[in-house]
Amino acid sequence: MSFSATRRHFFAWAQGALALGASGARPGRDPESTVDYYDKLGVTKIINAAGTYTVLTASIMPPSVQAAVAQAAQHPVRLLELQKAAGEYLAKRLQCEAALITAGAASGLTLATAACVTRGRADAIEKIPTDMTGLKNEVIVQKAHHNDYDHALLNCGVHFVEVETLAEYEKAFTGQIAMAHFFNAAGAGSISREDWVRVAHSHEVPCLNDAAADVPPISNLWNYTKMGFDLVVFSGGKGMRGPQNAGLLLGRKELIDAAVANAMPISATIGRGMKVAKEEIVGMVAAVDWFLSQTDEGMEAEFTARANRIAEHLKSIPGLQSRIVIPPVANRIPHLVLTYDQNRVKIAPKAVADALRHGSPCIELNPSTGRKHDHGVTGDEDAIVVGVWMLQPGEDIIVAKRLHEVLSKAT
Ligand SMILES: *Cc1c(COP(=O)(O)O)cnc(C)c1O
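Above: query sequence and pyridoxal-5'-phosphate SMILES. Below: predicted holo structure tokens.
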């Protein structure tokens, strides 16, 4: 090749690289990606005035995270190298010994359990959950801490041992206990986090904390590991607004290494089906960077401002009362709670939620709306609950207008 041909080749390559870089930095600019597959598939786009609910796809990644995902999609890498580098980077940023990006918090619970069951027993990794020979196969838990995610632990072939009081807990450590499990947002159960960790450690049993939905505050990302929990799980797609199928498993290096040994991309593991692709690994790291650039005060001020704008728009509705509720542990951000005079506005909160769901645009209100048995926000059957934190810019006013329309029509 002559020099000029080489140069032409180089410039063509460089232009191509620049074009790729530009489309990577601004997803959606690439003509190939202008097809809206939701429209093509006939899937309804919603306004999420509910919150980070899994069935509503939880959250929207901020632009910097979307760009990082699009960029990562353009290059193959070695998956183990990426997994290791991402873990080391996150451990530094999140002030823990080690970290693993999992396929969501539920996957983190499975991998944490597998780590505790198989640690020091590499031969057991491919045998669990059907052959538990010689393995510790019990997980201790407070009776009030059971939840729908128990299955993620049970997948590893373990059984639960239930306790209610500290005295029972202290006596429950047989030689078969592999792990002590704590549900961070349980809000019930008489044994504190500190006692839970102290007693387990006196028996050399590691402790797991499921804090999936428990940021903000941002500092929770290190509060529980610093408190002594050996492993802590967070969902990546909830408050951190990472990819929905990503999560964080944080904790002690020895146990994170044991979790990695049970995880994808290694094929003969319990975690093989919980694949985290390069796009999600990079997206999760970018989401942590984004989340750590926020402040608790800034987020709270923004969500409060949205709530106030909606309430202000509705003040002519007969008997309208608005308040802001911040749940204590999970989803600890301002929610707008609205009540009104149902003798004059003849529509129940649940019917308002239905009207918004079936209207245009389609709006999903918080599932606590009109429910006595709530989803952690309020137990008021007469209340409309607006989860403002997952609204996109400008959507607060759209929600306010639709609420005004539906409520004023019923007067
Ligand atoms: C949402 C949630 C999970 C699961 O999180 P994913 O990231 O969706 O897997 C687990 N535990 C609790 C308490 C949760 O709220």
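Residues 54, 104-106, 149, 210, 212-213, 235, 237, 247 surround pyridoxal-5'-phosphate (CB under 6 Å).
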